[in-house]
Design brief:
The complex is a heterotrimer of chains A (142), B (670) and C (155).
Chain A lengths: L1 H17 L16 H22 L5 H29 L23 E2 L6 E2 L19
Antiparallel strand pairs in A: 1-2
Helix pairs in contact in A: 2-3
Chain B lengths: L1 H27 L3 H31 L5 H6 L6 H6 L5 H22 L8 H22 L7 E2 L2 E2 L15 H16 L1 H12 L6 H32 L9 H26 L3 H24 L13 H22 L16 H32 L8 H21 L10 H24 L5 H32 L3 H11 L1 H22 L4 E7 L4 E4 L2 E12 L3 E12 L2 E6 L2 E5 L4 E5 L1 E3 L4 E10 L6 E9 L2 H18 L6 E4 L10 E4 L2
Antiparallel strand pairs in B: 1-2, 3-12, 4-5, 5-6, 6-7, 6-8, 8-9, 10-11, 11-12, 13-14
Chain C lengths: L1 H13 L2 H8 L3 H7 L23 H13 L4 H12 L10 H25 L16 H4 L2 H11 L1
Helix pairs in contact in C: 2-4, 3-4
The chains are: A mainly alpha (142), B alpha+beta (670), C mainly alpha (155).
């Protein structure tokens, strides 16, 4: 009796593990190349929401609120720009740009020749974030 | 039956090896057949270990005394509950429970992620099954629960068993080991995801999002297990306290502390993409501390009341730990470039910094406990003298650390992310700070002179007020906007961000527990030999012995004293401390008499009979505020449960469209 | 139980009267030696401080220490005798500097690591800018409207 049960157990285990049929294979899942950017975007939006809420509760001084909000918005804009660039690279069809680019602020005149420390791109304006790679570039001035 | 159990375990061992290899090979060679087959291996391992555990539990319940394990850890007169609990009453059984829980977790992890994270799930399966193989190795070849007695070559049953250790025959103790194990084992899953993510160089924090719940659940079980252990020590061991810095208690505390540090520092990664290396280190450390905890409990390397077992098992654990740690360290160093931080610190005065200090203090306390626990081993290796550190050493070291941690609990959430100006600090600190100072002043005026106690009460009030203000301000804002009453708004507030407000509740639980711990500073104790009519005075209590009895039950002999309790002259009722001597094991236990109140406990222990056998030796303790430890524990568990509830507000954000494959709106569930 | 206790009592009665009082009210001498021996009852205390009454280990141990002192054995000899009988694990040396320093050194090391971390990741102090929120980068400015729109949706 025990021997029969034992045999059934062994056969069942092996059959279950090895008996993978073609229809058991999962269909390939669509992977968005933007997943990472979307994640970051979500995180920044969440930070912004928390920030607004805390400001409304009076936990933050005006100055802290404004500074942090600005930082977050810049980061967000960086992420959005990165996404747009990826879109352009992919160049997929059927994509309709939803954003109307706001007119750029008039650039303040400043001495030319700012170099991004990360990617080496050159700008004629003192940018906080590199327009090419999105990394902060305030620290180094060429 | 024993053959069936052994066969199932052996088969599980083989299938687990196959599952680990097949998953990883299938991923490397891009053969989906192998990956799916590896995942099915995980299910099969679970089923097989379930069969083996079922055989063992059946033998325990039915009293099949052919099994050495059953004979050793149960007997006929034990209640059914303890017969079942005997599953984890001994070495072999508890290792089987470990295996079974790990298989269960692995199965759930593999099943829930069967269609997701396809690029690194095979590695997760591989890691989990490697750990599983190690434990099945122990189950099969080192500590097999299916050994049977044989006489003259024939399997024989013995008439009756030894019985479960009487110290374990207590409801809290019956569920304490599985709770702790659920915690220990639970941390394997985040660890496996972290390793899988590291091997495949996943961009982003996928492993953190996926395992957030797992970590919380493991932490919840671990907390519950530790609390149950404390309650057990308090009610059963009879020495008037709940925490003795016993190596096995420490073993359960270590992963809890590093897990707590991990729960905090992941926020740095989620919010700012910083401290990625550190989080991987923490989750690995927590996992290996869990293995170390099992090792300490099971090997008897550091002597302790719990370390029942002194077997060969130690060297297997040491080998596994050494290999595992070496592999993890290599992997982290190898992938260091990919773990680069994404952003910077805007200011030193910020939430980020407070997390750094929180991690420092948690890790320091973890290290101190680990150091103290292993010190006998270390000092024996260094100087040849085995030096054991007593509870006093731990208390002197841990009390200041604990108080600083309590302080951080209060101030951490007051700092805002990125930067906090003096103005913001003043808004948040002013009133709670003033209140705390006033309280300390009042306590000094009232005659309290204990330095640590004053600090502790001050911090407790401070933290409690900051949390209260947080809830009040948030609820008021919601109430004003939505026209709700304040209580309803508080629920709404919590529901909107369960993780944050549940976390605050956990902090409240910690505060309540600290109030209980602080009560220890004012503990009173008294010992006296009492005959009928004699009385004992302790604090405001007068105890009068009214009856001294002796008797015998099926399992044990007992001596019981009945004492009439008076407080400030008025009668409060009877307490009946009892001493039991279990016949089968010649082991004695205490049934303490406790009058539990929120302000203080009166705790009576029947120490034994006096030398002339005429009087009872009664140990009396007054433990002020000790009940708050249990209340705090419940609040902590409640807060953690709230953290597990999905938040009501789910962030909706425009998802970048790609060929219209994904839905245009994604939901981030917090 | 009673028979067991009686036999124990007989055994103890054979010992010196000195020994009996040693377990009830241990002298300073007994305490001094007891503090260097770990109680084996599982209490994590020393023989001198074990708080379990009728402790199966500390009580006879205190009596034994008293007897040994009565015959003039030195503290070290007594401790050695216990180590011989119960193994090295019973020896409870006072925590030496090694035991104390390392945890504090750990905290110190952690502080250094935090300092290094802050130094490495600290952004240079931003120029204090208050006033209208604006994104001063023309390349990013075009996203401003969208961000504002999304932010309004958050509440």
């Amino acid at each position: 009796m025990i021997i029969v049960i034992a045999c059934i157990l062994v056969i069942a285990a092996i059959a279950f593990v090895l008996g993978v049929r073609a229809k058991d294979l999962p269909a390939p899942e669509p992977v968005s190349p933007f997943e990472r950017l979307d994640e970051r975007k979500a995180a920044i939006y969440e930070n912004l929401r928390d920030l607004q809420f805390e400001y409304r509760l009076g936990k933050l001084s005006d100055q802290d609120y404004q500074n942090t909000k600005k930082d977050l918005q810049k980061e967000l804009a960086g992420v959005l720009a990165e996404a747009d660039r990826m879109k352009a690279q992919i160049g997929e069809n059927g994509f309709v740009p939803q954003l109307e680019p706001a007119p750029p602020k008039p650039a303040e005149p400043k001495e030319s020749g700012f170099v991004c420390p990360s990617c080496g791109a050159r700008f004629d304006k003192d940018l906080k974030f590199c327009g090419e790679c999105g990394k902060p570039m305030k620290a180094v001035q060429a | 039956m024993e053959n069936l159990g052994s066969l199932a375990l052996l088969l599980a061992f083989c299938v687990a090896i196959y599952a680990a290899l097949a998953s990883v090979a299938g991923r490397i060679k891009r053969k989906p057949f192998l990956v799916v087959s590896g995942r099915r291996g995980v299910y099969a391992v679970w089923a097989l270990i379930t069969v083996a555990s079922g055989v063992l539990v059946h033998a325990l319940m039915a009293g099949d005394f052919r099994f050495a394990y059953v004979w050793e850890h149960s007997n006929r007169s034990m209640p059914m509950l303890y017969k079942f609990a005997a599953w984890w009453g001994g070495q072999e059984g508890s290792l089987l429970l470990w295996s079974w829980l790990l298989a269960t977790y692995s199965m759930v992890a593999a099943f829930t992620n069967r269609r997701r994270r396809r690029d690194f799930m095979p590695y997760v399966t591989g890691v989990l099954m490697t750990v599983q193989v190690f434990f099945l190795l122990l189950n099969n070849f080192v500590a097999n629960a299916f050994k049977v007695f044989a006489l003259d070559g024939r399997i024989t049953a013995l008439p009756d068993g030894n019985g479960l250790s009487p110290l374990l025959q207590y409801p809290a103790m019956a569920i304490h080991p599985p709770m702790l194990y659920l915690g220990y084992v639970g941390f394997s899953v985040p660890f496996a995801f972290a390793v899988g993510s590291l091997i495949t160089r996943q961009p982003g924090d996928g492993w953190i999002h996926t395992t957030r719940r797992w970590t919380l659940v493991a932490w919840l079980f671990q907390s519950a297990g530790i609390m149950l252990g404390m309650a057990w020590a308090y009610h059963v061991l009879g020495w008037g306290g709940y925490w003795g810095w016993d190596p096995v208690e420490n073993a359960s505390l270590l992963p809890w502390i590093s897990g707590t540090a991990f729960l905090h520092s992941v926020m740095m990664q989620e919010k700012k993409g910083m401290m990625k290396v550190w989080n991987i280190v923490l989750v690995s450390a927590t996992f290996f501390l869990c293995i170390l905890g099992t090792f300490l409990t099971r090997s008897g390397v550091v002597q302790s009341v719990h370390a029942f077992a002194r077997s060969e098992i130690g060297k297997y654990f040491v080998g596994f730990l050494a290999l595992g740690i070496a592999a993890t360290v290599y992997l982290i160093l190898e992938r260091l470039d990919y773990l680069k931080s994404e952003s910077q610190l805007e200011s030193v005065v910020s939430r980020e910094s407070s997390f750094l200090f929180n991690n420092l203090i948690l890790l320091a306390s973890c290290f101190a406990v680990l150091w103290g626990t292993l010190f006998p081993v270390i000092s024996a290796a260094v100087s040849g003298d085995q030096i054991s550190l007593d509870a006093d050493w731990y208390n002197r070291l841990m009390v200041p650390i604990g108080l600083f941690l309590l302080f951080l609990t209060g101030v951490g959430p007051l700092f805002s992310w990125r930067r906090t100006s003096v103005d913001s600090l003043r808004r948040n600190f002013q009133w709670p700070g003033i209140a705390a100072v006033v309280l300390v002043g009042a306590l000094i005026a009232a005659g309290v002179r204990h330095f640590y106690a004053l600090i502790s009460f001050g911090f407790c009030l401070f933290v409690a007020l900051t949390v209260l203000v947080e809830f009040y301000k948030g609820s008021r804002s919601i109430a004003a906007r939505n026209g709700m009453n304040l209580a309803r708004a508080a629920v709404e507030l919590t529901h909107r961000n369960t993780r944050r407000y549940g976390g605050y509740l956990v902090h409240v639980g910690i505060v309540l527990m600290f109030i209980g711990f602080t009560g220890q500073a004012f503990k009173l104790s008294e010992v006296k030999e009492l005959d009928n009519g004699d009385s004992l005075k302790i604090g405001r209590y007068d105890l009068r012995m009214v009856k001294l009895e002796h008797g015998e039950e099926e399992n044990y002999l007992w001596d019981r004293a009945t004492l009439d309790v008076f407080k400030n002259g008025s009668e409060l009722g009877l307490l009946r401390p009892e001493k039991r001597l279990y016949k089968a094991s010649r082991q004695s236990t205490s049934e303490v008499g406790i009058r539990q109140r929120l302000d203080e406990d009166l705790y009576l222990n029947f120490g034994g009979m006096s030398d002339d056998n005429q009087r009872a030796v009664i140990q009396a303790f007054v433990n002020p505020l000790v009940s708050w430890v249990w209340v705090g524990g419940l609040v902590l568990i409640g807060g953690t449960l709230i953290c597990l509830v999905p938040s009501k507000i789910r962030m909706q954000y425009a998802r970048t469209q790609v060929l219209r494959v994904t839905s245009s709106y994604a939901t981030v569930q917090k | 139980m009673r028979r067991f206790r009686n036999s124990l009592w007989l055994l103890l009665a054979a010992a010196a009267v000195l020994a009996q009082t040693a377990s009830e009210k241990p002298s300073l001498d007994v305490r001094r030696v007891g503090a260097r021996l770990m109680c084996q009852c599982g209490c994590k205390d020393s023989v001198a401080t074990c708080s379990m009454l009728e402790c199966g280990f500390s009580k006879p141990a205190k009596e034994r220490i008293a007897r040994m002192q009565a015959v003039g054995m030195s503290d070290d000899q007594i401790v050695q005798a216990f180590i011989r009988d119960y193994g090295q694990g019973i020896y409870l040396a006072p925590p030496n500097a090694f035991g104390w320093i390392v945890p504090y050194a750990g905290v110190g090391l952690g502080l250094v690591v935090i300092w290094l971390f802050i130094r490495k990741y600290r952004k240079p102090a931003p120029v204090a800018e208050i006033g209208a929120m604006e994104i001063d980068d023309p390349n990013l400015a075009k996203y401003k409207d969208q961000i504002e729109k999304d932010l309004a949706k958050l509440e």
